[in-house]
């Protein structure tokens, strides 16, 4: 029973000692410099990787000296290791190379390991960090420096079609969990030296790399500095997904509206880069973040730009309408059926009244029951194993809706309201944005139940006041609408044709405001050739 | 401090929970579609309400029961009676969808402004309901006479009168607000629609009535009730009503115009517009009513060749003559028989000769009855249906 | 405590705020009814005449730049005397915002939520006003940019829908000026000139925060003319729909007029939706008066105005209830007492009194500036 006591005691001390500081995990805890003695280095490394099953260490000859190589076989590509490192090492021509000083070590690398990413380290923990990231560490007896060679090639999910922001027309590639792949997906779209990637490491324990991509000469310097500053300021032990980063760098957390856009689509990321925004790629997350973000971004899908601007604009208006529907339709139902009967046209009123005959609940309760049921179904649909998930969610909704109506628990009209609301909720291209409507809806319903239409209006007022007070990296959240910027209306509610959309958004205060000044509308020539009058 | 900040609003929100002051679920209220007011036996008024039975209007839920229920009470104030209806009815009554107000003849003769004020003030009523005078019958019977297509009697009457107004002009476009406007105006006297029941009212008061091809009793519109101030003084028949409407805002109508011995042409009148010019000729006011309208020929019993301009001209002249005499007869009848300006000539005078009108505004109806009225019609016959020459036309 | 930031509102926002402020309660309660069918003319006349006081306000402000009315008073009259005037103005601003709030409460309780206590309406509405002012003037500016299109759109839509419902009778507006200009002038003074136009005095607290102060005055006057015309249009629509008598009889003529709208048996009783339009106007009006008062408190007690917001909001909500016992008292106060005793001194009296002092002080400041 001793072990229980041990755990309990440790727990207790944790609770009692408020001054307890969080200690970083083993890594770099003691960071001795690399010594000249191979044995000492080796034992230090072995100690660091104690109990790590995937850690491999081998004694080798480097030139005419004793040496060692270490790597994590979980993080490295063994065939690459063999081909790039082991083969040159066992090459007989190198056996008599003498490595007595640093220059010789360097020229040795040049000769045998060219084309392989490398770092030299004086500190042991630097070398260990690289080994953890998929490098092979090489130490030579007598040298106080360690060489790390990149042989990492971790298996990642291949590039697939994005699962969230699907399109009918447009590129079907999506970001993956690998940062290198993601960077290459962006680079492939913008083959320009102005496209910069800056990498930082975030998370004391996970040491996740976070890359900021931007277009130099387009992005506003102030915004870029702010993005960097905020990422540097993240104090956390673990980052697993861009969602973690998002929460740390948002301007405000006490809001249901996402202040940072996320996307799984490289074309969307590239387009946003060119508008003058920064893209934040977090290793291990297929969702990249885009900052700064404004409200209208959540109503724009990349597909708007790949099809005729008429249909693009139309669909965009539909999205705005469905946001309003998702937000207010249930509360309007409550307000109309429980307060303002006068507003309902007579025939519809009698139809609604007939449906409600015998329904035992007040309209609000009826609505809340169905809303919560729907949310449960939705959640179940996502969490369930994929094979049954989809069927359950659709069939469940239908069956429960139908059964509830037949049992006289809810009215037909209400099921229509719930269904329409649910559909409208999912129209926004970005999933995180729908959360806003889903949550606020309940507040609207509550206020409508107390005050009718006045309550809904009051809620809308509060919501807009809140929205208007938000900022994303200093840019007002409702930017081209409030504050109103006439020049930026080209791409808000309607998608204007490209030839008329020559500027980058004003509110981003880009370094070069014009993006395609020469574009023209394809019209027949106005005058005959050479024809002046 | 921070906790306080959060606590305070939440406490306020708790206060709201005690609220929901105005909630009324749909199945806790009953919608009144029609109200009938007539003379009570023991008290000033007898008020009848027609309440919709919504579930019988729903195709799925209908069991063939009555779609509308009526209940009557007697008392001295409409407002109190309406709130007291639960003596016999279960649910709270709502008047927002009331479409008809039927007033009994006796009450109308004694004056109705007393309860009109309540209807305007309460805010519960939409003011676009039809005002009806029940001629020769009990007003309550109107709310009880079933009809198979529009199941609720009061809605049926409402539809009937607005369709008649739009199609033929046989009903005035008089809503509560218009009635009150006419009542308060010095230069116009109000009118209302009159209706009656054909057949035996008792027979019509059952769903069984709906099962007959020819209903035992049917509500029919009979014309116009003429008021002096708020008191009913007489009626105009349907033809005269149409002529009255023609001076106001006729939308369209059909005329039967003689074109020969016992022969007629049918003319559909469209886009009619009437303009009135007022003047004072010494002490007698005079009015020129100008009617401009388009028309097309619906049918003819005459042999005239419709491919000739002369025919059109002749027909146009016939129509114009008929319209002029028709309207003039009606105006003269009102002038002589009722001596009230239901046409709003006084208002025209007020607009065009403000000072003269102000001088006589208190005796306007006398002025009206001695006024010279001149009607000029200007009817354009545009086309004659889908065929050119009628088969009746003999080749020359 | 939150530190106060220097807030700026753009000219567009200023324009919208001025317009919404003028629509505010004026569009609901119906103005210039005494001029019968000519009330729309009265509105235009009053609007044009009030360019003079508004120009005067901006002139006064421009003498001592980047200072609001209260700060100018403090500079010109000294700390002690100015405090008396500022406190009076604070009372005035709070009183007017309470009055406007009461208008709104009466509207909601009279038409929409008959059984709901008016106190609840006042409190919830003031909570919102407090919230938006807590977020700052800038947020109020941007907020109004969102709602302005709906406000304008609805006002025009009312006219068009009424036209389609065949309820707009131009003949109701005739005859024009049958008794000469007399009745019109009678309505302009004192009613219209003080309400709503003279109330623009509250903008003496806002104008210095416009981003381009130089154009702020012109923008205000432009907004004044535009909203004067729109008010006249709305008044015209009301008369044409209801006739002058019914308009005068109605508590909220715009609502009664929109009640006449009836299209395809489907669009009916839109008057409830109009409440939304009204609500926005009321919001701007209450907020601006309230903000003026709060700024005064800030100056007098030397603490950021945000500290006063919630308590003062509740006091105003309370005030709006106890101001008058019933609707009749509320309206008769508004017509007989308020213009003469309250509006005139604060809108014209005190600014005129300040005028010579400001001119003198501005000269002194200018010569001081030159010396340096």
From TrEMBL, chain A:
One of its GO terms (biological process) is spore germination. It is a multi-pass membrane protein. The chain crosses the membrane at residues 317-339, 388-405, 411-431, 443-468. Residues 508-533 are annotated as: Disordered. It is found in: Cell membrane; Membrane. The keyword Membrane applies. GO terms for cellular component: plasma membrane. It comes from the Bacteria. Keywords: Membrane, Transmembrane, Transmembrane helix. Pfam families: GerA. Its main location: membrane. Belongs to the GerABKA family. PANTHER family: LEUCINE ZIPPER PROTEIN 4, SPORE GERMINATION PROTEIN. This is Spore germination protein KA. It comes from Halobacillus aidingensis. The lineage of its organism: Bacteria, Bacillati, Bacillota, Bacilli, Bacillales.
From TrEMBL, chain B:
Residues 223-385 form the Spore germination GerAC-like C-terminal domain. It is a lipid-anchor. InterPro entries: GerAC_N (IPR057336), Spore_GerAC-like (IPR008844), Spore_GerAC-like_C (IPR046953), Spore_GerAC_C_sf (IPR038501). Gene3D superfamilies: Nutrient germinant receptor protein C, domain 3. Pfam families: Spore_GerAC, Spore_GerAC_N. The keyword Ribosomal protein does not apply. One of its GO terms (cellular component) is membrane. Residues 1-23 form the signal peptide. Transmembrane segments: none annotated. The keyword Magnesium does not apply. Its main location: membrane. This is Spore germination protein KC. It comes from Halobacillus aidingensis.
UniProtKB/TrEMBL annotation, chain C:
The chain crosses the membrane at residues 12-33, 39-60, 80-98, 118-137, 146-164, 184-209, 221-243, 272-293, 305-328, 340-362. Keywords: Germination, Membrane, Transmembrane, Transmembrane helix, Transport. This is Spore germination protein KB. It is a multi-pass membrane protein. It is found in: Membrane. Pfam families: Spore_permease (PF03845). GO terms for cellular component: membrane. Belongs to the amino acid-polyamine-organocation (APC) superfamily. Spore germination protein (SGP) (TC 2.A.3.9) family. One of its GO terms (biological process) is spore germination.
């Amino acid at each position: 029973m001793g072990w229980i006591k041990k755990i309990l005691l440790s727990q207790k001390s944790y609770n009692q000692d408020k001054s307890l500081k969080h200690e970083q995990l083993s890594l770099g805890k003691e960071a001795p410099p690399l010594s000249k003695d191979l044995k000492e280095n080796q034992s230090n490394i072995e100690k660091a990787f104690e109990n790590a099953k995937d850690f491999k260490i081998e004694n080798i000859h480097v030139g005419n000296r004793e040496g060692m190589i270490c790597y994590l076989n979980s993080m490295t590509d063994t065939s690459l290791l063999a081909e790039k490192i082991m083969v040159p090492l066992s090459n007989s021509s190198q056996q008599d190379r003498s490595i007595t000083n640093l220059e010789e070590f360097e020229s040795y690398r040049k000769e045998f390991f060219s084309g392989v990413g490398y770092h030299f380290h004086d500190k042991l923990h630097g070398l260990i960090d690289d080994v953890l990231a998929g490098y092979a560490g090489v130490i030579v007896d007598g040298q106080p420096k360690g060489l790390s060679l990149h042989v990492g090639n971790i298996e990642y999910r291949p590039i697939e079609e994005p699962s969230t922001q699907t399109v009918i027309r447009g590129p079907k590639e999506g970001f993956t969990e690998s940062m290198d792949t993601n960077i290459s997906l962006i680079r492939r779209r913008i083959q320009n030296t102005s496209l910069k990637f800056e990498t930082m490491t975030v998370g004391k324990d996970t040491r996740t790399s976070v890359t900021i991509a931007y277009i130099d000469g387009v992005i506003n310097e102030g915004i870029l500095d702010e993005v960097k500053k905020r990422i540097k300021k993240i104090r956390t032990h673990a980052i697993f997904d861009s969602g973690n980063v998002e929460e740390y760098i948002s301007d405000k957390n006490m809001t249901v509206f996402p202040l940072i856009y996320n996307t799984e689509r490289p074309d969307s990321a590239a387009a946003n880069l060119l508008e003058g925004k920064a893209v934040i790629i977090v290793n291990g997350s297929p969702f990249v973040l885009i900052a700064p973000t404004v409200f209208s971004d959540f109503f724009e899908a990349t597909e708007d730009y790949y099809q005729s601007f008429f249909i693009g604009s139309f669909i965009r208006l539909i999205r705005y309408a469905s946001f309003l529907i998702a937000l207010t339709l249930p509360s309007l139902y409550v307000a109309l059926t429980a307060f303002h009967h006068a507003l309902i046209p007579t025939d519809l009123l009698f139809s609604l009244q007939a449906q409600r005959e015998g329904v035992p609940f007040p309209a609000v309760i009826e609505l809340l029951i169905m809303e919560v049921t729907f949310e449960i179904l939705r959640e179940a649909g996502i969490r369930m194993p994929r094979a049954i998930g989809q069927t359950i969610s659709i069939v469940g909704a239908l069956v429960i809706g139908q059964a509830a109506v037949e049992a006289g628990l809810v009215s037909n009209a209400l099921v229509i309201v719930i269904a329409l609301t649910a559909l409208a909720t999912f129209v926004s291209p970005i999933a995180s944005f729908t959360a806003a409507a889903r949550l606020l809806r309940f507040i609207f319903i509550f206020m409508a139940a107390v005050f009718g239409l006045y309550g809904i209006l009051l809620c809308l007022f509060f919501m807009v006041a809140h929205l208007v007070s938000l900022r994303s990296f200093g840019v007002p959240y409702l930017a081209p609408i409030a504050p109103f910027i006439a020049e930026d209306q080209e791409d808000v509610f309607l998608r204007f044709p490209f030839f008329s959309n020559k500027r980058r958004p004003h509110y981003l205060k880009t370094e070069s405001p014009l993006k395609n000044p020469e574009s023209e509308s394809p019209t027949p020539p106005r005058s005959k050739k050479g024809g002046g009058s | 401090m921070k906790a306080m900040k959060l606590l305070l609003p939440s406490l306020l929100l708790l206060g709201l929970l005690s609220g929901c002051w105005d909630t009324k679920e749909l199945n806790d209220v009953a919608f009144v579609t029609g109200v009938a007011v007539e003379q009570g036996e023991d008290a000033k008024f007898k008020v009848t309400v027609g309440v919709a039975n919504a579930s019988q209007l729903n195709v799925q839920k209908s069991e063939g029961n009555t779609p509308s229920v009526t209940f009557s009470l007697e008392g001295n104030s409409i407002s109190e009676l309406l709130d007291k209806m639960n003596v016999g009815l279960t649910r709270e009554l709502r008047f927002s969808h009331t479409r008809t107000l039927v007033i009994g003849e006796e009450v109308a003769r004694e004056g109705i402004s007393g309860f009109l004020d309540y209807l305007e003030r309460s805010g519960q009523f939409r003011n676009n309901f039809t005002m009806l005078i029940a001629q020769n019958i009990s007003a309550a019977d109107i709310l009880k006479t079933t009809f198979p297509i529009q199941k609720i009697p009061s809605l049926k009457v409402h539809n009937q009168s607005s369709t008649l107004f739009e199609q033929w002009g046989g009903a005035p476009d008089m809503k509560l607000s218009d009635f009150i406007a006419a009542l308060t105006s010095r230069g116009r006297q109000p009118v209302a629609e009159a209706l009656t029941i054909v057949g035996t009212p008792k027979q019509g008061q059952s769903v069984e009535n709906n099962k007959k091809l020819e209903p035992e009793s049917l509500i029919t519109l009979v014309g116009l009730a003429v008021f002096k101030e708020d008191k009913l003084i007489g009626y105009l028949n349907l033809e005269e009503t149409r002529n009255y409407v023609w001076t106001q805002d006729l939308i369209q109508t059909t005329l039967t115009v003689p074109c020969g011995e016992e022969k007629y042409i049918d003319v559909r009148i469209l886009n009619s517009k009437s303009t009135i010019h007022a003047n004072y000729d010494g002490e007698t006011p005079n009015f020129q009513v100008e009617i401009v309208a388009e028309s097309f020929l619906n049918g003819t019993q005459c042999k005239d060749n419709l491919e000739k301009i002369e025919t059109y001209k002749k027909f146009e002249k016939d129509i114009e003559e008929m319209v002029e005499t028709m309207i003039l007869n009606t105006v003269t009848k009102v002038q002589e028989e009722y001596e009230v300006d239901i046409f709003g000539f006084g208002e025209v005078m007020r607009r065009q000769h403000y000072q003269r009108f102000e001088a006589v505004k208190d005796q306007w109806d006398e002025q009206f009855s001695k006024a010279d009225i001149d009607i000029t019609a200007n009817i354009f016959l545009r086309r004659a249906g889908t065929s050119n020459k009628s088969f009746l036309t003999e080749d020359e | 405590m939150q530190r106060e930031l220097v807030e700026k509102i753009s000219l567009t926002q200023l324009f919208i705020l001025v317009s919404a402020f003028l629509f505010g309660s004026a569009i609901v309660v119906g103005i210039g009814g005494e001029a019968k069918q000519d009330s729309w003319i009265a509105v235009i006349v009053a609007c044009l005449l009030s360019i003079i006081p508004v120009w005067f306000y901006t002139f006064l402000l421009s003498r001592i730049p980047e200072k609001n009315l209260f700060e100018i008073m403090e500079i010109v009259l000294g700390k002690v005397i100015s405090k008396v005037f500022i406190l009076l103005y604070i009372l005035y601003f709070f009183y007017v915002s309470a009055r406007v709030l009461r208008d709104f409460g009466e509207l909601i309780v009279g038409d929409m939520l008959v059984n709901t206590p008016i106190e609840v309406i006042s409190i919830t509405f003031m909570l919102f006003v407090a919230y938006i002012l807590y977020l700052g003037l800038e947020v109020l500016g941007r907020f109004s940019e969102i709602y302005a299109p709906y406000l304008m759109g609805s006002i025009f839509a009312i006219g068009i829908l009424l036209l389609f419902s065949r309820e707009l009778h131009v003949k109701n507006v005739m005859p024009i000026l049958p008794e000469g200009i007399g009745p019109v002038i009678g309505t302009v003074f004192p009613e219209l000139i003080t309400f709503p136009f003279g109330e623009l005095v509250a903008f003496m607290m806002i104008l210095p925060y416009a981003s381009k102060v130089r154009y702020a005055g012109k923008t205000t006057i432009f907004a004044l003319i535009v909203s004067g015309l729109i008010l006249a249009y709305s008044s015209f629509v009301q008369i044409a729909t209801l006739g002058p008598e019914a308009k005068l009889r109605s508590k909220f003529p715009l609502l009664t007029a929109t009640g006449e709208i009836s299209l395809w048996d489907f669009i009916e009783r839109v008057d409830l939706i109009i409440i939304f339009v009204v609500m926005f106007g009321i919001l701007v009006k209450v907020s601006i008066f309230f903000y003026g008062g709060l700024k005064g408190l800030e100056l007098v007690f030397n603490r950021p105005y945000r500290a006063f917001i919630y308590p003062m909001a509740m006091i105003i909500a309370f005030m709006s209830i106890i101001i008058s016992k019933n609707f009749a008292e509320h309206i008769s106060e508004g017509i007989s007492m308020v213009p003469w005793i309250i509006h005139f001194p604060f809108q014209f009296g005190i600014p005129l009194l300040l005028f010579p002092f400001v001119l003198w002080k501005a000269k002194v400041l200018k010569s001081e500036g030159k010396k340096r």
